[in-house]
Amino acid sequence: MTEQRARLLLPFSLLIAILAVSTASIFIRFAQTGGAPSLVIAALRLTFATLLLAPLALTRHRAELQSLTRKQLTLGVISGLFLAVHFATWISSLEYTSVASSVVFVSTGPLWVALLSPMLLNEKLTRAAIVGLGLAILGGAVIGLSDACVIQNGLQCPELGQILQERAMPSRTDVLVARTVWGNFLALAGAWAVTGYLIIGRKLRAGMSLVPYIFLVYGMAAAALIVIMLAAGQSPFGYAPATYGWIFLLAAVPQLIGHSTYNWLLKRLSATLVAVTTLAEPIGSAFLAYIVLDEIPKASVAVGGLTILAGIYLVARQPRDTTQP
Predict the structure, then answer these.
(1) pTM value?
(2) Contacts 24+ apart (CB under 8 A), 31-37
């Protein structure tokens, strides 16, 4: 594919990536209905994705895989570990803290990418891009808080209010505070992990083809998640065929199409822009939930979504790095 043709495909590719990744929440919902725990879903998602990639990677890209340097292999393994940690910590955070808090903390990923990119990738941010970054994170926070808050005679957050009320009970204060702090930390760790995943991906993709890179990274993430799943005492066996079908779709669409398109874009767009674009996932998820599950999104989701889109537009306006082949 020529560079000129690739650039023409960038907006379309961004849209495809957002829509594909947005299907994840739908497929996860159906897989959870079938009784599969979140860690099992994450482990099988990456395992299925790796197995689907294997025939292509081991035939057409065998020579490139065999010629990878020790540095490339090491960075690829680390990137896969970051991806595994992202899934494991963020999913686990939902067991300890509110959905709102978890989403707000994990949505700070683009902020850490933007802070580290100038030092690690030599990617400079314009003033407009910094404003756009702030808008996108604010929009993500609005969508996250929409799960816990409603606008009725002012802003009311019954879920958060209940948590604060329970914390006020002396006998439970220490336990609840500790659980919430731990959950928030896990969500923040998820944001840090996805930051490492994107920054290493941006660096590695400059010298690696897409298929060898994602095969290495997804494979390492799958292995790590399997270890985490087994350590948690969970089994990948014994679920209904339909449950495995939903997880297979989770691997095929949001992982192989969505994440892989983001990794393709990392060779042509800044890590910050790709990270900010991932915040559009709730917009696509809300649209698909309306179509598939007949769930009408809240007004706050629309407001947050428009804010995210405005932020993405501002970040996308910064000059692109044209040094990548």
Answers:
(1) 0.77
(2) 31/243, 31/246, 31/247, 31/250, 34/239, 34/240, 34/242, 34/243, 34/246, 35/239, 35/240, 35/243, 36/239, 36/243, 36/247, 37/234
